[in-house]
Amino acid sequence: MVNDGRSINYDPFYNKFVCYILGSIWREEIETKSGKMRLFIGLILPSKIRDELFKVHKKISPDISKIKWISKKNLHLTLKFLGDVEKDVLSLIIKKLNKIKFDPFEVRLGNLNFFAKNGYVKIIWTEIIPKKEIIKLQQKIDQELLDIFKFDQNFSPHLTLGRVKKIKKKEKFTKMLNDIKISNAQFKINNFYLIESKLTKDGSNYVIFKEFNK
Fold first, then answer.
1. With pLDDT > 90 as the criterion, what percentage of the chain qualifies?
2. pLDDT band, very low/low/confident/very high, at 181 (cuts 50, 70, 90)
3. Using alpha carbons only, how large is the chain's radius of gyration in Å?
4. Which position has the higher pLDDT, 177 or 190?
5. What are the residues whose beta carbons fall under 8 Å from the beta carbon of 15, sequence distance 6 or more?
6. Domain residue limits, the chain
7. In whole angstroms, what is the distance from residue 23 CA to residue 20 CA?
8. CA 11, 17, 21 angle in degrees (round to 5)?
9. CA 90 to CA 161: how far, in whole Å?
10. Closest Cα to residue 199, out of 33, 69, 16, 2?
11. CA–CA distance, 176 with 161 (Å, rounded to integer)
């Protein structure tokens, strides 16, 4: 079931989590400086999963909302956003991430949902379940990089599908989101990646820099 945004003010953790997610996205969009690499650590989705998720935007009419959808090739799960990283720190990051090992595990797509702020829908996303193994992996990454980057206390696995710019018909929009069903497709997590985000005139372009847990 999709939240309609009306109950979130009564849940302090949810409010804190929403602020964390929106803040992370804001940082990803504006943090870029010359001479540095804009990096994050994430999971790359199999093509069949990206195909399934990309179907969602076709089910929401542009007549009732304006949404900036994540392109199919850029659909991913962020484990940790690093921001603009000096190139001389890069070798240290890679050395630390190379220490992380984990056994492959299965996950599946969950329900469609959205983050709301001040009564307005901001982010459309879907769950990844079960969360336990992804959180354990993210915590390993956090622990290894603790002397370089801040600890992500409010991390929760999710896949961002789109960022809502404008809702023209709120009731129809909410009903449409509630009616959308996503296949509970399963996939295996074998590794994780250090990814560079390059800003272009057409938006962000993600380039895999290095693969870990080979």
1. 52
2. confident
3. 17
4. 190
5. 8, 9
6. 8-212
7. 5
8. 145
9. 29
10. 33
11. 15
Helix (H) or strand (E) holding 18: helix 12-30
The string of DSSP letters for 140-194 reads: HHHHHTTTTS---TT---EEEEEEEEEES-HHHHHHHHHH------EEEE--EEE
Rounded CA-CA distance 60/15 in Å is 26
What does 100-130 look like in DSSP terms, one character per residue?
-----EEEEEEEEEEEEETTEEEEEEEEEE-
pLDDT tens digits along 2-34? 444 333 333 444 444 444 444 444 444 434 445
CATH fold of 8-212: Cyclic Phosphodiesterase; Chain: A, (3.90.1140)
Task: Report d(CA 167, CA 62) in Å as an integer.
Answer: 9
Task: Give the pLDDT of residue 115.
Answer: 83
* 193, 175 Cβ separation under 8 angstroms: no
Which pair of structure tokens corresponds to residue 1? Answer: 């079931």
* Tokens linked to 53: 């998720």
CA distances from 24 to 27, 176, 190 (A): 5, 27, 25
In this structure, is the dihedral angle defined by the CA atoms of residues 86, 123, 162 and 47, taken in order, positive or negative? positive
